[in-house]
Structures are given as structure tokens and as C-alpha cells.
UniProtKB/TrEMBL annotation:
<dbReference type="InterPro" id="IPR000160">
    <property type="entry name" value="GGDEF_dom"/>
</dbReference>
<dbReference type="Pfam" id="PF00990">
    <property type="entry name" value="GGDEF"/>
</dbReference>
<dbReference type="InterPro" id="IPR052155">
    <property type="entry name" value="Biofilm_reg_signaling"/>
</dbReference>
<dbReference type="Pfam" id="PF00989">
    <property type="entry name" value="PAS"/>
</dbReference>
<dbReference type="GO" id="GO:0000160">
    <property type="term" value="P:phosphorelay signal transduction system"/>
</dbReference>
<dbReference type="Pfam" id="PF00072">
    <property type="entry name" value="Response_reg"/>
</dbReference>
<feature type="domain" description="Response regulatory">
    <location>
        <begin position="32"/>
        <end position="146"/>
    </location>
</feature>
<dbReference type="GO" id="GO:0071111">
    <property type="term" value="F:cyclic-guanylate-specific phosphodiesterase activity"/>
</dbReference>
<dbReference type="InterPro" id="IPR011006">
    <property type="entry name" value="CheY-like_superfamily"/>
</dbReference>
<keyword id="KW-0597">Phosphoprotein</keyword>
<dbReference type="InterPro" id="IPR001633">
    <property type="entry name" value="EAL_dom"/>
</dbReference>
<feature type="domain" description="GGDEF">
    <location>
        <begin position="337"/>
        <end position="470"/>
    </location>
</feature>
<feature type="domain" description="EAL">
    <location>
        <begin position="479"/>
        <end position="733"/>
    </location>
</feature>
<dbReference type="Pfam" id="PF00563">
    <property type="entry name" value="EAL"/>
</dbReference>
<dbReference type="InterPro" id="IPR035965">
    <property type="entry name" value="PAS-like_dom_sf"/>
</dbReference>
<protein>
    <submittedName>
        <fullName>EAL domain-containing protein</fullName>
    </submittedName>
</protein>
<dbReference type="InterPro" id="IPR001789">
    <property type="entry name" value="Sig_transdc_resp-reg_receiver"/>
</dbReference>
Amino acid sequence: MSQLTSRDHMAMNALLNSPSAAAGGEARGKARLLLVDDEPRLLHSLAGLLKEFNYDLATAAGGNEAMAQLSASHFDLVLLDLHMPDAGGNEVMDFIAARRIDTNVIVVSGETSIDAAIGALKRGAYGYLRKPYKPEELLNTVSNALQKRALEADNRAIAWRLECSERLYRYLVDSSPDIIYTIDPDGCFTYVNDRAQQLLGFRREELIGQHYSVLVHDDDLERARYVFNERRTGDRASRNVELRLKCRHMNDSKRVFQNTLLTISFNSTAMYSFDAQQNRKEFFGTYGIARDITDRKQAEMQLSHQAYHDILTDLPNRTLFRDRLDLAIIHAQRNKAGLAVMFVDLDHFKFVNDTLGHLKGDELLQKVTARFKEVLRRGDTLARLGGDEFTLLLPDLRDRQDAALVADKFLRCLEQPFELDRQEVHVSASIGIAIYPEDGETIDDLLRHADIAMYQVKGAGKNGHSFYHSSMQEASYQRIALEHSLRHAIERGELEMYYQPQVDARSGAIIGAEGLMRWNHPERGLLTAGEFLPFAEESGLMLPISDWMIGAVCRDLHEWNATGCEPARISINLSPQYLERGDFVRKLDQALQHYDIDASQIEVEITENICIRNPEHAIEQLNQLCELGVSVAIDDFGTGYSSLAYLHRFPISTIKIDQSFINEIQRDNGHYPVVLAVISIARGLDFNVIAEGVETECQSRYLAQAGCSMMQGYLFHKPMTRSELARTMGRKVPRVA
């Protein structure tokens, strides 16, 4: 190696005394990390995870605080949440870019949309992790980001030093994070730096003299010819050509070699010497730089996969399903063939979600998906549209019966229970089927008609499948019209409260009544709550309808009180949506004061699942009701996943036995353990107990003998208007001897 000239010494001194040289050539201190999240619990957890890795950690509880710290101090890496109340993660990244702050960013966010990830990467983020993340995934990403930052610092130093001298050039070329090589006109390596061995596992001596094709993947050889035989210089030379190279790594001392592939980005330019005798340039080889972009390609592939797949189940999403359906329709048109589209909706999934929580609901979806995959035919496409809705494409359909067979397999695979949180959970499915081309020739028509057929199954009792028929369209329109009319029912005064008396079966005295909503539909007549409240739940109308119900009940009580005919208590059913989202305690208090109603005349009925889903919140809400003087009853007791450990903590006064258990009572001398157990629980907790749906003398006698004298049902009274209830009050209808 040639000696350094005085000019080279000057360059070396300048290089070694520069800050970048110190950063690249000396041992680096602890990496400084700034953790940014507005959730104190998550921020503390993240700091605890990283603390044991000898990082210098700082935290910020919001975007503004993060920007202040970035202005005042240097940080190697920022772990940044996207959604914060004062300044979001995107604003912080824009601040970093505008101030040209030298730091790297890893976004750690609960945002699941691909647009959020793409937006963060466009703003220069190194990586994007979705909450909840795996600890090892976070630690690897942080380590890789810091390694990337260190390599980039080395690269900057290397690029600057290459200008100094051949001695520095030789040293730094072999220290480069990129593969640097030269090739002769025949395509054989004449020089390869040490990075080739680090990345590919081939020693320099093994490659010198070998043709470049020994490294290139067979499918990329044609493209490699232009890179390794490059004869152009300047702007016309090859830039950022991606090739896959074979990689060989030795595992321990067993000398077992594994062949893998790395994706490498190549930049190459021709090398020429000047022939003075012939006064022309002579090509003598190609010089190139190859950078490992495997991690970037994997990240791009992952982002691309996530753009077309559901993250929870890894099934194709709506976009990919429509693409495949479009191709299947084109294929069917060309080959005069048929295909089927199925719309699959899980029955009772919302019940599981509300009872066991969304995490267990997600686990159930994954287990259902696994069973569905087991019965798929080769070439079928199963996709998840969202929630508990799936779609299935059956191409190359021979006849309708094939679609029916697949639907039956889907239903059968759900017959066995799923185990969630040590409990057996049963779900079924409602499946609608649309056939191409009879039921539609476009994507939208097929999906819409399969959806309509699915709702036909839902209305017929669920757990089945149905083919679309044109007659179903009218029923669908009626459903839409019903929902539309419901939005105007309150303002038009079409809603009305009916009341079903609750009696003491021994004396026949009315001790209270349950308020039941009815809709006086202008065309369909009187509709019960079960005929329209599900639409209200789906369309977000439960809050205004529940507000109306509270006002109507209090108004009716005010009228009864004014005439001296006052029921002992009126029970009202409140929707879980209203309890969780509505400010119902305040509204109920205002209604009681406005109509001058004693709070003891109101009893609020809730389902037991509300208590189990979020017991602490439920206890808080129910305590507020009790402070008003309102009593609380649990409706349909025994139909959900009861937790007796919580039940005794609830400020409850009444338990209502569900009608499904009462219907089982057929003989006076029969044994009905669930009914007896509920009555026993009520006694043990000092609760009142009311039996719902009592329709026979036998049921009434059995319940009375078991210790339950308060009953409600058609045996005593049907639901009636407020005026009918006023006339009925005071009458006794004894039923039990």
C-alpha cells in the first residue's frame, strides 16, 4: 500500500479531529431514547421493558412535551404514539423534519389502518408497531433501529474518508456496511470487500476469480447481466437494481450450511483506462456497490400483506376478496361457468363479546376461522369483512347443490363448543348464498343478494343457510323502510308504553307492573318491542328511544298519582347501550323531579351480562341509582354467565326468573332444579324474586310451593295500555289456593 502524501496527512488529521470521525471511530455511549405516550400505564410499562437494556431513557406524556425535550436534548431514538390529545405523533414527526433533528422514530400505536402505517413511514419513521405488541418484537425493532443508525453514521464517515487517500480508501472499503466489488470483462470477481463474507458467508478468497452467477438467484440472472456487465458511466450507469443473492452461513462446528436469499440493491458503473497509443478509452471491468435491503423488502411485503389481509385472522380482507371475485366473474363469463358467493354471519357473537369481553371475542373469531379453513375446498376464498361477518367465494361451481354442501360443512364445524376462559361457548352461523349469474352478474349485486339471503336465515331462527330469491328483495326493502320509519316514530308520537302487571299470586293483588314499549306503526299496526328494538340497537336509536321511555313512564306515573291510583312500582328495561353510553342516571333524576315522582316507584331492570362484562363500572352506576332511591332488578336471570362472586356486591333488590325456565314446568310433582336454584339464591342474598312468563295454573302452583309468590304472565294479565292498567288497579285475581 502506498505511503500517504502530506496532502493525505492533512486530510486524515481533519477527518480524525472532526465530530463525525469521533462518532464513527470511537466507542459509543449509551443510546438515548425518548418514550412518548399519553397513557401513563403504557409509558411506565414501556420504560420498564427497556430499562434493563442499559439505555438512557427519558419520557414525555404528550406531543408538546416531546417537542420541548427534542429541542433541548439529543436523542438517538424516539418511540412515539400517534394519537395524543395535545399534539399527535404525526405533528411530532413533522417537527423533527422541519427542525432537521438528528434522531430516528419508531411509531408504537393502536391505530390499525394501513394508511396510518404508510403515513408514518412516509414521514421518515423507521418502523411501525401496532399495540398490543410482543416485547421481543419491540426490542428487536429498537435494536435494529439503533444498529441502522450506527451503520448510517459509519456510512457517512466512510463516504467522507474515501476522498482522503488510497490507504484510507482500502481500510474503509473493507469496513463498509455495503458489499463493494469489481468485476473483469468476463464477469469474474477481481475484488470483493469483507462485507461479502459478513452478509453472504463467502470468504473473499472463494469469490475472487469466480463468475458472478455463483451468487445470483437463477430467476434473477437475466437482470444481473446488466448490473455485472455494466459498461456505462455517470448518470446512465445502473442505479438501485434489486437482485436476490444466495447466502451461505455456517452453524457452529458441525459445518452444516444453509442456503438462503438476500435482496440486494446494486449500483454499478463501468471502469475504463485510457489507451494513449490508440487514443481511446478501454473497458476493463465494472465497479459496484451492493446494499442489503432484506429488512426493507420484508417490511414492504408485510405492509403489502396487511393492506390486503385482516390482521386478526390473516384472512383476505374486503379489498382482496373483491379483487378475487372480480377475476372469478371474468373467468366464469369466459368459460360459461357458475360461481357462488356466501355471506356468513355468526349467531350470538355479540352476546359472547358483551359477556366475556372483546379479547375473548377476538380469540373466538380466530378459532372459528381455523375451523372454517379446515372445510374449505381448494381454490375457495374465505374473507373477513369485519366484526363477525365473513364472505366465501366458490369458483367453478357445477350446480347449486355444491354450494349447499359447503354451507352445511360450515354449520357442522361449529356444532362442537369452543373453550374460552375455561368456559364452553356455542356459536352458530347464518349463511346467505347468491349464485352467478342467476342472482347477479356484478360484485355488488352478488354480495348484496347473499347478504339479503343471510338476513332471511336470521329472521327464520338462525343456524342455517338459504339461497337468494327475488322475493327476499321486498322483505329487505321493508326492513329498510321499518328502520327509516323508526327514526321518525318519536317525533310523530307513534310510540306508546304498555304495562304488564306483576301480582302476588296468593292474594291476586297487583304489586307493580313492567313497562313494555309498543310502536303504533301507521301501516303495520301495533308492533311489540322485539319487532323494532333490534333495529334501534343496530342504527344507534336506543339512546333517544330510551330517553323517551323514561319520560313516558314518569308522565304516566304522574297521571296515576294525580287520580289516586298508583301502582306500587313500575319496572323499566334499559338497553346495555343506554347504560354504558347514555347519562341515564342524570336524565332519570331530572324526569323524576320534573314529574314529581317518588324514586321508589321506579325499578330499573338490567341483564346480568351487563354486570359481568364490567362489574366495577356496573356497581358504580347501580350505586348512583340507589342513591336516588331507585331499586334495581336483574332481568332474565340464569341465561348468561353469572358471577356470584360479584352478584352479592351489586345493590340489587329483585331477581327475575327467565321465562325459558318457567316454560319447563309441566307437572306439579316435577323437579326443576334451575328454578329452585334461582329462588334459593334470591333467598340467600335477601332479594325479591319474580317469575316471568307464567301461563299455567301448574306453573303458578309449583312456583308458590317453591317460595316464589310474585309472578308475571298471561295467566294473570296481558300487557295493557296505561288507561287499562288504571282500571285494573285494585282488582284481585287469586290464582293459588
